[in-house]
Specification:
It contains eleven helices and eight strands. It has helices spanning 58-69, 80-85, 107-120, 142-145, 166-169, 192-198, 206-236, 272-275, 290-304, 315-321, 329-336; strands spanning 13-25, 30-42, 73-74, 122-124, 172-176, 249-253, 281-285, 338-340. The strands form two sheets. A six-stranded parallel β-sheet has the order 3-4-5-6-7-8. 29% of the residues are buried.
Amino acid sequence: MDAISLLPPAQTTNTTVVTTTKTTATATTTITTVTTVTTTTPQGTTVFTPFRFLDLPVELRIMVYEELVVVGKVFYTPDDYAIENEKRFKDWESYRAPRLAILRTCKQVHDEAEEVYLGKNLFVLPDQCTKRQPLAGSGLCSNAAKRGQNISHVPFHDRWLFSAAASRLVKNISVAVSKRSGESSCQYAYNHSLWKEDGKFDSLVSSARLNWAHDCATDNMANDLDDYMDDLAKFFRNGEKLPLIRLNYLEFDVTNAYCPIGCCRMAWLSWGPLMKLWPEKTSFLGVSNTEEKVDIMDSVQDFFYDVPPQEVPEKKLRAKFGADGEVDEEEMRRVLGVVFNPKKAYWEQWKVETK
């Protein structure tokens, strides 16, 4: 065998020739420069072209976003009190956290993915969320701004709940009603200065004192909760700006809606301000009995007697909810999709198995 036969076979090559022409003109002459670049690669070598995500059709990009950021329910590290006292936190650890690193890719991807994230998840808002960003800095939560920022019981209270774009992009929210939704529960205690101001302590028997303190504390708590829901409504109505956009889903958790003393329920609170977000479906969790259902619907119905027609988002609804029209409860329940204590929620399809 000769030496030549021992050499490896010659490789067939692919040759790419790129020629560029550059012309430079001066006052007296024209110079043309021709540059030829020859690239030779062995045959069979794979040349990888970078994948350009933004070259995908928007429909496919949205599918990628949904896989990353749509998780069903978004929670904010609830504490033991919330987990033990609010039904909306049932199985909260069974929902995975959204993967939001995609939002840091570039402005276009951020805007596209954020709209999917904010619009397709249910945001389970923590107690006193109006004292957290972006609600606190929006200038819309005026009732919360009047009070101190005592939210020490909320874990990571300095973290933003979501971006400021939430006021126009969020479509599903969950809120709870309890003594922690408004001021700290100690604010409702009847103390020496109040008894001194009323001058009634010595003139009342013990049972009358208890009733008096109970009624005053309950009224104060109800006023705080009304302000709380009013602030939430202002934020998610984007400062009352038109046109109005209906929510897809609104959830109220009244499991822990007891008076400050804990001896009676407060299902008669004013739900109307948040109902002005015109949810297509509304769920009330933790409703105890038929009487509470009646109280809730009476409260909602009373509020809608005073809704101006221009605040109703759809023409077909204005005749039913105009300021001068009669509000039919059954029609209102149908339009707002009111359900009490739903046995199975739409969001459960995102639950994953936990060890």
